[in-house]
Design goal:
alpha+beta
Length: about 160
Amino acid sequence: MAVEAEVLHELHRLRTCVPQLRGALAASADGLVLARDMPDVEAEALAALTAAALGVGRRMADLATRGEFRELLVRGAGGYVATYAAGPSAVLTLLADDRVNVGRLHLEGRRSGTRIAELMTTPATPDRPRPPDGPPPPALPPRSLGALPLRIPPQSRYGS
């Protein structure tokens, strides 16, 4: 199973665990969509904004001397956007209703972020599949990351 398919499976699992979750997106730290489970949302634009928020969040945590970036929560009138670090090369973004249990959202979001980080650092190959419950094969070195996305959407659909 390809890494993207495994990440998508994790997003489906997450949406099953948290009923008020309306969307889940895994993206690379440079703003490219890895997997998505979210109807009615422009995934590419959200992935780019998530990468930008990740860069700002990392910088804020660093300047405030609060350690490594872990998560970011935004509350709007209609619900939440929660972003979780998923290792050094990926990020998980969740869209939830306003009535979601935020503690449960954080618990499951953190678990999924950790799982996605594992999937991103230990890719399975046809000749070396990932064991289901055993230790993962030796990890490849993580990819280096930039602070902000390099790709900017060509135009905004929201008007000026």
